[in-house]
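Schema walkthrough. Field components (list of strings):
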Amino acid sequence: MALNPVYRTPLIARPTEELREKLESIWADPPGLYGWLATTDHKKIGHRYLTTAFVFMLVGGLEALGMRLQLAQPNEHLLPPNLYNQFFSMHGMTMIFLYALPILSGFSNYLWPLILGTRDMAFPRLNAFTYWVFLLAGIFLYIGFWNGKGTNVGWFNYVPLASRPYNPDWNVDIYSLGMVFLGISTTAGAVNFIATMFRTRAPGMSISRVPIMIWGTLVSNVGILFAVPAVSLDFMLLWCDRRFGTHFFDAAAGGRPLLWQHLFWIFGHPWVYAIVLPAMSIVSQALPVYCRRPLVAQPAVVLATILTMVLGFGVWVHHMFSTGLPVIAMGFFSAASFVIVIPSAVSVFAWVATIWTGRPVFTTAFKFFAAEVVLFVIGGVSGFMTAAVPLDWQLTDTYFVVAHLHYVLIGINVFPVIGGIYHWFPKMTGKMMSEKLGWWNFWLMFIGFNLGFFPMHISGLLGMPRRIYTYPAEIGWGTANLITTIGSFVFALGVLLFVINVIRSLLVGAKAPANPWDADTLEWSVTSPPPSYNFAVIPHVATIHPLWEGRLEGETLSILHEGPVLDHEHEMPGTTALDAEPDVILKQPSHSLVPLCMALLIAGMFVGLLLEMWWVAAGCMLAMIPALLWWFWPRVETGWAVRA
Amino acid sequence: MRRSIAIVFAFAPCIARAASPMTYMVSHGPAANPITALGWGLLGLSIVVAAFISLSVLIGIWWKRDRGEYDEVGWPVLSRGRNGMPWLTIGVPVSIVLLLLSAIWTFFVLGATAAPSKTPAITLVITGHQWWWEVRYEREGAPQLTFDTANEIHIPVGAPVRLRLMSADVIHSFWIPQLAGKTDTIPGQVNLAWLQADKPGVYRGQCTEFCGLQHAHMAMYVIAQEPRAFNAWWMAQLRDAAGPPAGLALQGQSVFQARCAICHSVRGLAGSQGVLGPDLTHLMSRRTIAAGTLPNNTGDLSAWISNSQSLKPGNDMPNEDLNGPQLQALLAYLQTLK
Amino acid sequence: MNSNIYRPPTYEETTEPRTLPVGKAGWRTPGWWGVLALIGTEAAVFSYLIFSYFYLQSQTLQPWPPSGLPPLRYAAPSTAALLISIGTMWWAERGARLGSGGRLLSGLLITLLLGVCYVILQCFDWHDEPFLPRSGAYGSLFFAITSFHVLHAAIGVLVLAAMIWWSALRHITAERYTPITVTALYWYFVVAAWIAVFITLYLLPWITPH
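Field assembly_structure (string):
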């Protein structure tokens, strides 16, 4: 019965082979199925996020291709209306909720501890739990699609069309419960990122030395914390209306259909920033690497990122300009929507200035990032047009808005994500991707995207409403739609080429050095792929560019190859929130099945609720109590119990 | 303002030629004209901004690329770089000025289009249904002039018309792009809007808030007429259906009473006060049927009656299982509803 | 050299070994940040519920609440119980910091009992209300808001029970008391949220003119 020591003075040393072997034995997952299910390694979880989200994107993409075939010509009969409505609803839901944020969570999960110079997230088991809930919620949201019970009211699911009298089947119940379910994952992930940011940065990485990639994700997750509750609540209330006869949205009994829209867009607009700010920060982080200089005006870009999120909570009504609100209210929200352009302009000018004053290297990743700048501006100015209330009365709910949102979500999310994969693939897998395939990959995607989505502006200006499954021949929308369909298939070909490049590189790619792009942040200071413990000794950070400072500052200030040796079980330093002074040795939990058990219990609860098998739901809830006791039980290895 | 109007006149004919009857980049009434100008203005500004940034990126990539030193792997040497701040210190203030000007213009347009300049004499009470439009005409101080119709709206040229927008079921959005922007019809509330046409013609519109299976087939037409023709139309619409017809049409009338009247009303016909479907009193005065889905001619009418579920799947009208003579009789009767 | 001029720490300074606490010690553990973030998100849910309440109130032409003023028979004593529990929780948490096991256990136990009192009183309140969740939008919201709060209090009670158990097993010491700090943080939030709910649902209808 050893006493659990309260204080320790860690040894300061250079890493030795012996130390690496010891750390490997401590941090590596146990072999076999158990290790696979129980891992809390942020790198494996990051991989899983990236893969799962990408698979969801491919599924959503196939749905989109189905729609494009149906719309290629007037009066087609490929998809009947009930299927078409499910296709566009599932497409929106998949891309916005199951692809756009999770893929960024994948990057952040993989990269945060490496960039921050530590060994794992603040809550490793919560991290595993977050992934399992995302996976199970994604499957849950798809359980009805194969037999016609996919959600069918569009991703924003307006009542009363989504209420029981107009939608009696399970379609919307699955969507409602699935969204509450998925919200658990999103929220838990946000909590984890915030605690990681404020508690586990490497010693010396004071708030001014935090790389911009971290800022984008942090701001996004703070936004998520306050935005996601609105939509979870909204869907919960809707489900109660549908199943228990409450009247939150029922105009006949004092409820209001517009309450749905307010709550939805209070969530929805910040969510847009939640799924683009981390992607923008990928560009801000990696674009300068290929321009061979630091980002221009980095502090201004960080402040602009924060300002965007803050303002993002004050513009939701611009999604509701045609609902008959008072003119004064619309004027206010219109002005706020104009103001939010300003921080975006800061980012754009900082990127352009970085390209302009740098000396770009033409890698595939650089092409994707440079393309992002252009597509962001196109998506941005079309958004600026919709901010003008009276003009929005014309533009809203036409294909102009469809064009706008795809320029935003593909331009500012997909392009940085693909570029980011080209950038970090060597680090994540130890293999280089093919630049030759990358050239084809980029140009097919870029040309296909613009060919596919630019004509949507035209069909929008020609008055084509969204979400129509067909249109008459004489109305003049045929040409634009045909070009869109062709472009979407070219784009799909580009995505296919990307998949081929990933698989090919995994199999036969050249071996990657530790820092193939000569980048500046800590993840490039360890081997590719990184060892299970990330850093053998804990680095001390003295500038924002630890790997560049010798060449930029003239002297090396950060200390990367000598530092505290923390080799008693899963240990990493805890540091203060602003100055990153070490003030505790954190004892992190290791592999565990409890996250998976909790996720399965929650899934069981939602299945019980969906099927109205109340005893299943209640049983799962009760079983969570012992599961949570197991999770939090004081243990020596988590540095709590007084004695073993 | 004047320049933007000039731009409108330069581009409008091109668009109008290419165009769809639904494009809002040309417009024909004071509720839409300032918006069209604003649309062209902001579109032009947007194109300039997007082109400027795109060119900057392209030039920034190629300009001076090859100057300077390279390191041992052939990449340009890492450096602090030249000062990039002028991009921000000039670019951001310029953006702010452009935004401010756009916002001011927007608020002028908002003020000009939020309400008509003179009080409308006519009010149309429009109720969105899945998937058609019910229209009730009301004239200030003359309740005896009220009547119901559907999917086709006649208005007098040069006078504002007030719209009171409601919904019988789910949210729809009323939109005649060349006359005014959209306003939603929402259960439990009445939204006000207005429109005015400055030249006679037929203006197409369509529901723009997703409203279920047949959202794609929920169009409507506004027919703007000279005031005299409009008043004549109103008086004609006000009349009940013509008295009992003769011959085949009389048989058709009893088919109608037996099979159709439960949902449709024909004013003046006993037992025909249905409210689930459009009022058919003057069916033959309309250009289209099924909310703009089909042209209104005998062939399409016949196809619609016997096969509406495959022409507009999911709509509330069942396929009427009529035999040949019954259908012929019914069509003959419907022809009398002028 | 002028000592006022900033200079980066020297190599020796940054690599000097430091003695650090191990495990759940230190001032603000990751758990503290985690629960703070959780409180942020839960506070947002309450805000949106209260927003919905005021929004529907602003849209209705009927009297609000439709069935007359809300009775304070149970709500007032339950508010008092929660207010007192702030003090007992604080007493327990200070006890943990001072290493006083008795203070810790007694404080936690009283807090738990006060929490249970609140939940029971709220059940009586529901039973006595003249409306049901299905009666109309007001009833739906009233039950949604209050039951959401009772859920939070019930979770708090369960956490308190776990803390009592672990305190009894002597896992809380003067060096490692942060689980109690974090629990206290959550409990203060439960009370604060109730005060917002109490003012919105029970007090405002009494003091605003109809």
